[in-house]
Amino acid sequence: MTSDAVTPVLSHVDAHLDESLQRLMGLLRLQSISTDPAFKAECDRTADWLVDELAELGFDAAKHVTPGHPMVVAHDDDNDADEAMHVLFYGHYDVQPVDPLNLWDRDPFDPQVEDTPAGKVIRGRGAADDKGQLMTFVEACRAWKAVHGNLPVKVSMFFEGEEESGSPSLVPYMKAHAEDLKADLALICDTGMFDPETPAITTALRGLAKLELTITGPNKDLHSGMFGGAARNPAHVLAKILADLHDEDGACTLEGFYDGVPELSNSQKAQWENLGFDAEGFLGGVGLSVPAGEKGRSVLEMVWSRPTCEVNGMSSGYTGAGFKTVLPSKAMAKISFRLVGTQDPQAILKALEAHVAARLPADCSYAIHDPEGSPATTMPIENPAFEAARKALSDEWPKPAAFIGSGGSIPIAGYFQNLLDMDAMLIGFGLDDDQIHSPNEKYNLSAYHKGIRSWVRVLDALSKV
Amino acid sequence: MTSDAVTPVLSHVDAHLDESLQRLMGLLRLQSISTDPAFKAECDRTADWLVDELAELGFDAAKHVTPGHPMVVAHDDDNDADEAMHVLFYGHYDVQPVDPLNLWDRDPFDPQVEDTPAGKVIRGRGAADDKGQLMTFVEACRAWKAVHGNLPVKVSMFFEGEEESGSPSLVPYMKAHAEDLKADLALICDTGMFDPETPAITTALRGLAKLELTITGPNKDLHSGMFGGAARNPAHVLAKILADLHDEDGACTLEGFYDGVPELSNSQKAQWENLGFDAEGFLGGVGLSVPAGEKGRSVLEMVWSRPTCEVNGMSSGYTGAGFKTVLPSKAMAKISFRLVGTQDPQAILKALEAHVAARLPADCSYAIHDPEGSPATTMPIENPAFEAARKALSDEWPKPAAFIGSGGSIPIAGYFQNLLDMDAMLIGFGLDDDQIHSPNEKYNLSAYHKGIRSWVRVLDALSKV
């Protein structure tokens, strides 16, 4: 197959964009919030939707039950070219919760294309994370099949429904079904562009460690008039524990936290500096102006190559309207760490526990719930598939594609490496202003359209590696 | 009138206790939850009930409309002894909400006398706070009148229906009706005993200052993977602000916080030490063992005579089930201060604001909502009415009555002093285990019975001052 094969497929994508869009809208209407048990049936329905869609495309698609939400696995049996590369495409069909609902301008599960000053956007929960992204790949396959009858490489797909709730079933499932999932290369679509004109292949992903910490003082909420002054207030204890997590220069104070954190090579530093990253615009877009991380680091270093320690949630006592002079029994914080290099998630969770224990006054106890961790991942850009894909992306977009880092954690990339001995290539078309995990999430219509076209080109390029 | 007059009145109380109890049960069945608009008509009905009851006793009783719930004011016109002391008795007929309803062992508004290991109790919402307490006074008046035809002192009564919802109409009403309410001494029944054997006159009430503080960083919740490390996290900022509110010895660090905090006199200290307060039991009852307040202070000092600074509520980011790696836009804390002596609530609220401003990093803003403050109140125990009442109470109970402090705030006592230039004497028969504001509120039957008898004695004693 030559690249002449690509042109009619791209034309087909352009001519049938509206149908591709309507299919995505159908997927976005499904309320697959994985973290909330109330939406369990809806997650199941979303898996069924994908199975139907892939079966219609000629894939051998099946829904696999797990202790949590189901997996969807599909193989394209039409392609029998034994010598063709076999890729396994991964995405997730679950979405983040939608609260606070009052900050949405529309029903998060009634998606709509909206005109904005920056162009048309697809508005709705999951539009960018990850339903829009995974559909770019599905629709690229549809166009290839519509035009040529089959795909240029052997394709399997693997969708999970627990990515937004810590993927508890993922590793056991991958271990148990290694044979079924194993391919030459994994493709992962849960990442973004460098900017609206510059596509990217993400080659360095931060890891993640997280836990929920609860401090308990009195055995029930007390009246602050009766007990205030004499009884230990766990909100004060928690505040002290959290305040002590960083020093004045923004560095994390946990014992051994920076063990395994590599310094950026000069060449990588130079490449990143050449990207012309607009730190002011990045922070300005969210109402900030001063980088808040470690002193002396650039913003790109802070989000791509340095570890972090963040409070993601905090709660204690009475938080409703009005005032209740309660002295709380408990105070809770959700804390997470983004990890880089060879930082050990388990060692960091232990260091946090020691930090808490060292600050615990008499009569207080602590409990740690749901501790979890996955290390950072670095991709092998020496694999020729990376350069082939980079060129294909560069053909589609105004500016050449870049190899970039990512602040987020996509543990699946590491699992493909460690559990299935497969390299993983991360390509996605999200933008920084997509408001993923926030109200009014969107995906640019151009990201969807050119995303489908990009995968058409990448599949072709991979068939020639 | 001599104290020979008291004995037949006490006997009358004993002989007619069941009727007194049935009248209280009638009052307890009225669902006068003032904070919930759904119960507005019921509050009104409760005011009518009191007017009828007092009119039947020969009082000139009236219900007075306010923008909120009505006031009930009643004057005893039978007593024409111009030289007699004129007392104004204050209570409140409204009650706290009953949720969580599932933690009640019975319908909160179907009161019942229950046998418990500690004796008979009257179970129901408002039994102790404040319907049972106010009825001890009403029934004492009834017994005096039944036996002697009139009361030993001139008595007026003043009941409000908004105490549990911040008393919004109280100050305007007192100002507008100062003439009608003015008497020689106010009697307030909304307090407790020192212990089940030791009656008390509460002579020091802590004041209260409070506010809600919100720190804003980014203009929306962010993805901690994308922005974590570079964007300012307001939860960290708030933690630091709260952690810095106390030093290592438990003292509040706010500038000028201890201005106006008096040291306890040696005699008062000695009196409190002699009470044999069970600090271990007090803390042990709520699962604590070590007093958490200022180093070197006794537990009684901490809750009666020292100021406090407490976080009553705290919230930021995602606090639901599971995990959301959000970098929050806002972090909120509700903070209150219990005040003593002549501490100035406004100065302390300003000092807190300065404390916040001094710790605010670039790109963060703060907002303060609903700041409110009322100073502490100290009663003039040199007024001979106090010693007379103390002796009368000591005659009724196993142990001598004590002048005690109270950690809570009862702003009405200050209003009598400041608006009507009247001293106020706080006598009540509540106990620490009455579960006021909580499910299964109760009032000991013995507190009700001996409370009525106590007021019989106090009225007699006041007639001789």
Notes on the protein architecture:
- The first copy, chain A, is of the alpha+beta class.
- Chain A has two domains: 3-205 and 377-462, Aminopeptidase (3-Layer(aba) Sandwich); 207-261 and 307-374, Alpha-Beta Plaits.
- Chain A has 15 helices and 18 strands.
- In chain A, strands 1, 2, 3, 6, 7, 8, 15, 16 and 17 form a nine-stranded mixed β-sheet that branches. A four-stranded antiparallel β-sheet of chain A has the order 11-13-9-14, covered by helices on one side.
- In chain A, strand 4 and strand 5 form a beta hairpin.
- In chain A, helix 1 (6-15) packs antiparallel against helix 15 and helix 2 (17-28) runs antiparallel to helix 4 (131-148).
- Chain A is globular.
- The relative contact order of chain A is 0.19.
- The interface between A and B is large, with 92 and 84 residues.
- Strand 11 (308-317) of chain A pairs antiparallel with strand 11 (308-317) of chain B.
Write the layout of secondary structure elements.
Two copies of one chain form a homodimer.
Chain A lengths: L5 H10 L1 H12 L11 H17 L2 E6 L6 E6 L9 E7 L19 E5 L2 E5 L7 H18 L5 E7 L9 H7 L1 H4 L3 E4 L11 E6 L1 E10 L5 E2 H4 L6 H10 L22 H9 L4 H6 L14 H6 L3 E10 L8 E2 L2 E10 L5 H14 L6 E10 L2 E2 L5 H13 L5 E5 L4 H10 L2 E5 L14 E3 H18 L3
Parallel strand pairs in A: 3-6, 3-7, 7-17, 8-16
Antiparallel strand pairs in A: 1-2, 2-6, 4-5, 5-18, 8-15, 8-17, 9-13, 9-14, 10-12, 11-13
Helix pairs in contact in A: 1-4, 1-15, 2-4, 4-15, 5-14, 13-15
Q: How much is the radius of gyration of chain A in Å?
A: 24 Å
User: Gap between N and C termini of chain A, in Å?
Assistant: 12 Å
Please give the CATH architecture of the largest domain in chain A: 3-Layer(aba) Sandwich
**What is the approximate shape of chain A?**
globular
- Report the biggest beta sheet of chain A as strand number plus sense, adding barrel if it closes: 9 strands, mixed
Q: Which residue ranges of chain A are poorly predicted, with pLDDT under 50 across at least 5 consecutive positions?
A: none
Summed up, the domain count of chain A is: 2
Strand content of chain A: 15-25%
Q: For the largest interface in this structure, which chains are involved and how many residues does each contribute?
A: A-B, 92 and 84 residues
Q: Helix- and strand-based class of chain A? A: alpha+beta
What's the assembly state of these chains? homodimer
Tally of DSSP helical segments of chain A: 15
Average pLDDT, all residues of chain A: 93
Helix fraction of chain A, binned, reads 25-40%
The top-level CATH class of the largest domain in chain A is Alpha Beta
Organism (chains A, B): Pararhodobacter aggregans
Domain Peptidase M20 dimerisation (chains A, B): 204-363
Keywords (chains A, B): Hydrolase, Metal-binding, Protease
GO molecular function (chains A, B): metal ion binding; peptidase activity
